[in-house]
């Protein structure tokens, strides 16, 4: 689904509806999305959280929903040297596995679920 960047975010939901924060939390903690491999946060049930990227505690205070969405869609937009993958953007990427070429890593619904979850993380 196409998206429109406005300023430093993507104001419109990728699905046209808000995500589910509980599903988003499960995705953040799943080893398949890799969030928790690099990030830490207020997730006492998860051992071995990452320390390569910003702590997600207070993410809902630091960034708007629009900004969170763009960070997940295309983190390189904020830092071209980031090691965080572009979870939804699929054009102009290098070293993409054959099975992922032309496909986003996460679906629009998964992005929205993670955004909903991160938005609840407030200090």
UniProtKB/TrEMBL annotation:
InterPro entries found in the cross-reference section: Cyt_c-like_dom, Cyt_c-like_dom_sf, Thiosulf_SoxX
Superkingdom of source: Bacteria
Domain Cytochrome c: 19-122
Keyword Iron: yes
Keywords: Heme, Iron, Metal-binding
Molecular function via GO: electron transfer activity; heme binding; metal ion binding
Listed name of the protein: Sulfur-oxidizing protein SoxX
Organism: Bradyrhizobium huanghuaihaiense
Lineage, top ranks: Bacteria, Pseudomonadati, Pseudomonadota, Alphaproteobacteria, Hyphomicrobiales
